[in-house]
Write a structure and sequence with these properties.
heterodimer, A: mainly beta, Rossmann fold, six-stranded mixed sheet, 3 helices, B: 183 residues, alpha+beta, 32% helix, 12% strand, elongated
Chain lengths: 420, 183
């Protein structure tokens, strides 16, 4: 099992802040799906079908049907009576079973059906230990999601975020739904701007443990980390190039906050752009061709982009006097960013093809948007009742979720990539 | 107690005695009589300049940094919203620190720029950096050496006041000037 707890600045065992998800909106058209309890799943509480149901409903694209007890329990081997499931208004049906094995492990099998088209959509068998229950259920959710929507599911991905409790900061990694949080780094000084490497194995972030911002790269498997940029002045705003070998960073070593490229091992630093303003928050486009960033070279902070190989920046945002923190969608077609809108800081989405801007949130202190790797949802930090919480909104603005910790301020979320 | 102390004191006195400069005796082979009217010889002392970087001794120039009656004990410069110009009321403070850095070439300063909490954390790192760079530039124009000063930013991460009010924001938009040993 992956160990994230090595190489802490120090140890202190306080209660883990568990994130709980609350859904506050849903898509207009949700696929009604019947999720029959897996035969024998009581042996693995809280039950595979319960976790799969929560996953699918959280996406905002599915509605899990309420089912009466069915005798005998259907399994992946049962012959499906499509008319009967259609009469329960199901468009899709998931059935399966959990069998204990002599070695103490379990075997889970499932089968998915399209009830409308009256066809089987396939199934998989897994063997697992108790501790892989959630991971296995998330993989089943990914299978269902992809078969029924045509897009990859993000149920097996992870998120990183920073929790502040008192004067203590923890960089935590959790499943996409906030479960299984583990602390990768704890410090008495701030930690900001975590970003996942494209392979999902490392995080780059900014730590203030040296009384100034310094950029680190941290390997999650073994907890080893190294300094990438600790030049005179401030070192901040890391962004991975899609090749995972280089980072764009913001350094003040030559005066002002300016964009540089640096190898992930800290070598080969070179200047990327030059302005008399603040240039910060770089992000590579998924194809690696462009770097989007925030700059106030024109008087107010706006989103710009420039070729990753260097060249003249072009302004991207024009509406409003404060547009920051650009994040490019995984398909490269839209950017999410934070806009100041009548004194409120909200998440906006800009369609790069037609320049349409849509405000996605109705909160007022949003920060740090982060796309799910399938582009469907955007994770963000906001403030509710004077406490930092994580929130998520679908790219169409319809589905809204809130993840709140049991204690402390949660901020600086970063949604990790797909893991094979 | 006394039995322990006495040898200590005695030893200290011995060392003090050893350190004291003995007056030079005239060479015996060439006696020089101090005749009335004779030109007196010039006696030159060879003082050793003492540098005290502990900041504790009241005789050290570094003590001024901690003396509440001295302007040098003031280390905060406050800025207006979204601004980074040093306001007139802080000019004499920056000048005093420039003079101190000029007169104490061994002194090193870290300037931490800060921003209020509104807006993007990374853009606020940029705003704090602009504020610390401004004061660093002013200090060097006033004669401090460039390599005596590092200007950095803590963005919005280190507020001194955590209410969400303009009063509070004004306290957080600041530079902190810190000398070696203070950070």
């Amino acid at each position: 099992m992956i160990r994230l707890l090595a190489a802490l600045l120090f140890w202190a065992c306080s209660a883990q802040a568990q994130l709980a998800i609350e859904i506050t909106g849903a898509g207009a058209q949700r696929i009604p799906i019947a999720l029959a309890p897996f035969a024998g799943e009581a042996a693995l509480a809280p039950g595979i079908s319960t976790i799969v149901r929560a996953d699918l409903e959280r996406s905002g694209l599915f509605r899990g049907l309420e089912l009466p007890p069915i005798v005998p329990e259907p399994t992946e081997a049962t012959n499906i009576n499509y008319a009967e499931w259609r009469s329960r208004l199901a468009d899709a049906l998931l059935v399966g079973s959990v069998q204990p094995r002599p070695d103490g492990r379990f075997e889970v099998r499932f089968r998915l059906y399209d009830v409308v088209k009256q066809q089987a959509l396939g199934g998989v068998a897994y063997t697992l230990g108790k501790e892989q229950l959630r991971a296995t259920a998330h993989r089943i959710s990914d299978f269902v999601y992809e078969k029924l929507t045509g897009e990859k599911g993000v149920f097996s991905t992870r998120i990183a975020y920073v929790v502040k409790r008192g004067n203590r900061y923890e960089l935590q990694i959790a499943d996409y739904d906030g479960a299984g949080a583990e602390t990768a780094l704890a410090s008495f000084e701030p930690i900001i701007s975590p970003v996942w490497s494209p392979d999902g194995k490392r995080l780059a972030y900014v730590s203030f443990e040296n009384k100034k911002p310094v950029v680190y790269v941290h390997s999650l498997l073994d907890g080893k980390r190294h300094v990438v940029a600790n030049f005179k002045g401030s070192n901040s705003a890391p962004a991975w190039a899609p090749d995972g070998g280089r980072l764009a960073v913001v350094l003040s070593r030559e005066g002002g906050s300016q964009l540089f490229l640096i190898n992930a091992d800290g070598s080969g630093v070179r200047r990327l752009a030059s302005s008399s303003g603040i240039d910060t928050e770089p992000r590579f486009s998924p194809d690696g061709q462009w770097i989007y960033f925030t700059s106030d070279r024109g008087g107010t902070p706006q989103v710009y982009r420039m070729p990753a190989s260097g060249g003249e920046p072009q302004r991207v945002t024009f509406e409003g006097s404060y547009n920051v923190s650009p994040r490019i969608s995984p398909d490269g077609k839209t950017i999410a960013y934070i806009t100041r809108n009548a004194g409120k800081f909200q998440v906006a989405l800009l369609d790069l093809s037609n320049r349409q801007v849509q405000i996605l949130t109705d909160s007022d202190r949003d920060e740090s948007p982060s796309f799910a790797p399938n582009g469907r949802m955007i994770l963000l930090a906001t403030v509710i009742n004077e406490r930092g919480v994580l929130s998520a909104v679908s790219a169409d603005g319809r589905v809204k979720q809130r993840l709140s910790a049991t204690a402390g301020d949660v901020r600086e979320p970063a949604w990790g990539p797909f893991i094979e | 107690m006394r039995a322990v102390l006495f040898p200590l004191i005695a030893t200290s006195l011995l060392f003090l005695g050893a350190c004291a400069t003995e007056p030079e005796k005239p060479a015996a082979s060439a006696p020089v009589e101090a005749k009335p009217g004779a030109k007196p010889q010039a006696v030159e002392s060879k003082p050793v300049a003492r540098v005290d970087a502990t900041g504790r001794s009241t005789g050290s120039p570094f003590a001024a940094l901690k003396d509440p009656n001295n302007i040098l004990s003031k280390r905060q410069i406050y800025f207006d919203y979204d601004k980074f110009e040093v306001k007139d009321e802080f000019r004499s403070l920056v000048e005093a620190h420039a003079k101190f850095l000029r007169e104490n070439p061994s002194a090193k300063m870290l300037i931490q720029g800060n921003a209020d909490e509104r807006g993007s954390r990374e853009y606020n790192v940029g705003l704090g950096q602009r504020r610390s760079d401004t004061v660093k530039k002013m200090l060097t124009l006033l004669g401090a050496r460039e390599d005596q000063i590092e200007s950095v930013s803590l963005g919005e991460e280190k507020p001194v006041c955590t209410d969400h009010s303009e009063d509070c924001y004004a306290k957080n938009r600041r530079d902190d000037m810190l000398y070696s040993g203070e950070y």
